[in-house]
Amino acid sequence: MPSIWDRLLSMVADAACNALSSVVEAVRTLLEGDPETRRQVAFSVAMIALSAKMAKADGIVTTAEVDAFRDVFKFPADQAANVARLYNLARQDVAGYEAYAEKMAALCVSCERNCPILEDIIDGLFHIAKADGLIHEKEMAFLSRVAEIFGMAVERFEQITARHVHVDGRDPYKVLGVSPQDDFPTIRKRYRVLASENHPDTLIARGVPAEFQRIANDRMAVLNAAYAEIEKERVAA
């Protein structure tokens, strides 16, 4: 059975001008009868296109950012050349990142506000943005704009940001999207919902390819640490 990368490369070969932006439309039409593969390919296109565009947002494509892209994309060794070609096509494509983001938002399976799979894409982009040790102001503007196009609520974007950006230490309450004024049962309930939504098996079920499980594992580690910190604080009090 062809891998996701084989399918993507085939679409690029068939797409006009070899532009990755046209592949988004190919995903919509060619995989209409195969929703599971359609979701996986759509996610892959978004991550490749947007991460390549974001890597240029601060004017510099660093080795660390490219390595982070490879780290998030746990692709088979024999697919390295295919993935590299797709990534380079996205970097060279004249289409702007907003056009990519708008097309990906239209492909969201649930078409709901705060679409989970679009949140997964934002989370993956944060991993790549912080690979060189900091998130540049232009990269933050890029991420914020993509989240806006994705229809993500501001507070939801801030919650994701809190998992990745914490100059003065990570705030466990912001990570879980709760308030220090909330009682512990409320916080525990919120944590359990997040743990269920972000379990690696749940991501696979909603169309995130298995190759991207680094995203889910890191996210769960941060959520678990935040909950443990609050629990310890409340017990001590």
Characterization of the model:
With 237 residues, the protein is mostly helical. It has helices at residues 4-14, 21-30, 35-55, 63-72, 80-92, 97-106, 116-129, 137-149, 154-164, 172-176, 184-197, 200-205, 213-236. The longest helix has 24 residues, at 213-236. The radius of gyration is 18 Å and the shape is globular. The N and C termini lie far apart (56 Å). The model has no long low-confidence stretch (mean pLDDT 76).
Q: Could you give the topology of this structure?
A:
Elements: H1 4-14, H2 21-30, H3 35-55, H4 63-72, H5 80-92, H6 97-106, H7 116-129, H8 137-149, H9 154-164, H10 172-176, H11 184-197, H12 200-205, H13 213-236
Helix pairs in contact: 1-3, 1-5, 2-3, 3-5, 3-6, 3-7, 4-7, 7-8, 7-9, 11-13
Bulk shape: globular
Low-confidence regions? none
Give the rounded overall mean pLDDT: 76
Strand content: under 5%
- Secondary structure tally: strands: 0
Structural class: mainly alpha
Distance between the termini: 56 Å
Query: Number of DSSP helices?
Result: 13
Helix content: 55-70%
Radius of gyration: 18 Å
Largest sheet, strands/sense/barrel: none
H-E order: HHHHHHHHHHHHH
